[in-house]
Amino acid sequence: MKFWKIKTALFLNYFVFAILLNSVGTVILQVQNNYGISQGDASILEAFKDLSIAIVSFLLSSYIVRIGYKNAMLIALGFIASICLIMPSTHSFGATKLLFAAVGSSFALIKMSVYSTIGLVTSSEKEHISLMSFIESFFMVGILTGYFIFSYFADSSDPASTAWLDVYYVLGALSVVAFLLLLSTPLDESSIKAEKNESLASEFAQMFKLLASPLVLIFIVCAFFYVLIEQSIMSWLPTYNNKVLLLPVALSIQMAGILAGSTALGRFLAGILMKKFNWLYVLSICLLTAGSLVLLAIPLAGSAGGKAVTGWTDAPVAAFIFPLIGLLLAPIYPAVNSIILSTLPKKKHGLMSGLIIIFSALGGTTGSIITGHIFEQYGGQNAFYFSLIPMGILLACLILFNRMQLKTARLLS
User: Fold this and answer.
1) DSSP string of 192-256?
2) Which has the closest alpha carbon to 229: 318, 296, 294?
3) First vs last Cα of the chain: how many Å apart?
4) Among 306, 308, 363, which Cα is nearest to 332's?
5) Where does 274-348 have alpha helices with state H?
């Protein structure tokens, strides 16, 4: 298969950072137990992760082609491998904040490079959206794997134990493997570099010019609200399982993996469905069904307490049903990302990838912080009802985005 080695490297890079990035929900729960941090204060970890993604993407999106996609990914993998190997010797909330700042900064380079590289190894819009969906589905496989890796190191008998920090030795080793695979993988970037003759200042200005496009603006709103929904649920699901459903710590982390697993399956299926059906119809049905699932699943949590839970077999039904929302939300993000990228010329993919990352990061931070404070003030059940509001806004934005994209495609044809 053509480009199989670079595609494998892209999958592995995303897999590594999926575990690191989305461990924030698990770590939010652990720092509450280890360091006595409140739920509102713990939510700041999302900001350290996402704001570092946004800042690095903003500063380097116009420079990523000069660095080189492969070089940027190697820098990110080498840096985060070093940080992971240092992490187990630290035992403080401050060090945890710095860890997520490092993870976010490195992921900015990875995501810009991966998204831009997809354009180099695909030759049609359908191939682009399919590969994007499969890569994003593998990202969710990484998240699912991460829940089980972290739960293995968690000590349910002593929630205050910091033994879970040893997980970063494993993640550091995995980062080294990803680094070595990419280092040995060829990637021809000559066609993109040949188009970049502008000055750095001119390239930076192009990002703002791109941001002024109505199509790009409505896409950014879609990306922002999708990630706001996803991260508000994903980052707080382990805490919801532990504090609301009263599951043990390790089981709370493991069962949050249902969300990642259902999202991975949803994105895998999306890679097939998007080749056969109009994307707007698929995504609209998914959003409406997701909203119905919230209204069905959250009330079940009210009757889940009072029963001792020791494992998967005696966990309340609410712990299984609500995470299935991932199956419904899953197709949205890779689909809209692929559509905007395939609509634009390849030479603008680096800049557009930077904008995707910036506003996705801002959406993730906003969703997690709002959910954390609602969780603290009004309880876990009310915190997840909040997701219905951005779901309604996102549905309206997707309809508008579809109209603008069709108009733009006709003008370019």
Assistant:
1) HHTT--S-HHHHHHHHHHHHTSHHHHHHHHHHHHHHHHHHHHHTTHHHHHHHTS---HHHHHHHH
2) 294
3) 31
4) 363
5) 279-301, 318-321, 325-329, 332-343
How far apart are the C-alpha atoms of 175 and 228, rounded to whole Å? 28
Cβ–Cβ contacts within 10 Å for residue 14, how many?
23
The predicted-structure confidence for 107-142, as pLDDT tens digits, reads as follows: 999 988 888 888 787 776 667 777 777 787 788 788
Give dist(CA 389, CA 370) in Å, integer. 13
Residue ranges making up the domain that contains 252: 4-412
Task: Indicate the SS3 state at residue 273.
Answer: helix
Instruction: Give the H/E segment covering residue 103.
Output: helix 93-121
User: Hey, what are 349's tokens?
Assistant: 């993919």
Which ranges in 36-92 belong to alpha helices (H)?
39-42, 44-60, 64-67, 69-86
Chain position carrying tokens 């770590």: 27
Q: What is the largest CA-CA distance in the chain?
A: 67
User: In terms of Cα–Cα distance, which of 265, 238, 261 is closest to 249?
Assistant: 238
- Specify the number of domains making up the chain: 1
324: pLDDT strictly greater than 80: yes
Min mean pLDDT across 104-108, 131-135, 188-192, 312-316 is at 188-192
Angle 223-227-230 from CA coordinates, rounded to 5°: 145
- In 3D, which of 401, 384, 395 has the Cα closest to residue 325? 384
pTM: 0.72
CATH code of residue 354: 1.20.1250.20
User: Dihedral through CA 33, CA 35, CA 39, CA 40, nearest 10?
Assistant: 180
Nearest alpha-carbon partner for 380 in 173, 240, 185: 240
